[in-house]
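Hey, quick one: can you model this chain's 3D structure?
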Amino acid sequence: MSEAQAKISILGFQSETNLKSKIIQNLKWLGLLVLLVGYAGMAEAQPPGKVYRIGYLGTDPPPAHRWDALLDGLRERGYIEGRNIVFARRFSEGKAERFPEFAAEMVRLRVDIIIVPTTPAAIAAKNATKTIPIVILTAIDPVGAGLVASLARPGGNITGLSTLAPELSGKRLELLKEVVPGMTRVAVLWNPANPANASAWKETQAAARALGLLLHSQAVRGPQDLAGAFALMAKARPDALLVLGDSLINMHRQQIVEFATQKHLPSVVGSREWVVAGGLMSYGPDISDNFRRAATYVDKILKGTKPADLPVEQPMKFEFIINLKAAKQIGVTIPPNVLVRADKVIR
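Sure thing. Here's the predicted structure for all 347 residues.
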């Protein structure tokens, strides 16, 4: 072989070797790429982050502004409905006897937390589970109802927010007396079957004695009692009406407001929904604030804090609302010194 042929042979060999080297190198890169794509596919195939299931057990769907307040509070803490939280909502539609059934369903669904707005719902949830955390939203008297051992140290699996404020009954009666100066007799519409109402009734009685007022108790233990209570109030002809709201009473809000309007009865209740529906006045905790604050409890519990270590909080925000349309309908003039104290006036 000539020198020139040898050089060509060597160059050809080198070229072939380089080509093979490049092919091998490319194959390595291709393999790495396939491996990376595989890892990416595996990553995408991995299950998403934890999705918490939250049970909500109530009498009826809460007003939109309250539910939005709860969702806003959760969103501020990183919980988005449909992304990392889902709700299982059940409503008794005024039939408290259905609460145990729904509470048992929450246990079967293995929810992470049960949110309850009322005492009867909370009692049913407590009887159904000793392990699933329960957050109450508006318990009137959680200690008196046997839900928690104390506000500071709840014990067990229940905590949350209360609407208990001893001064509320006296304040409501004082407002009625300012609007109706000659008032001496007040009808009180309430549900004694709700154990949480026992303390509210005692507070109302004490406030009435201090103001020199005579109370006419009108008990409503079920929907069938409402007509009888109306008949008794029409016969007694009280000067005003005080409503101790609970889930049963609230279900029949519109009927009660219409009765008070027909009988020209000045009334005071605890929540704004009554005034929006046509009632005269409301004074009580801002329930939307309770719904928003409940998100804090949900967040802490989902992060590992035990309900027993989270004190039950009392209301922090209160609101006084007056309906001037209702005042005109029943022939009542709201004094300027009362009107100026209102947080909201419906005209």
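One thing worth noting: Residues 52-165+287-309 form a domain with the Rossmann fold fold (CATH 3.40.50.2300).
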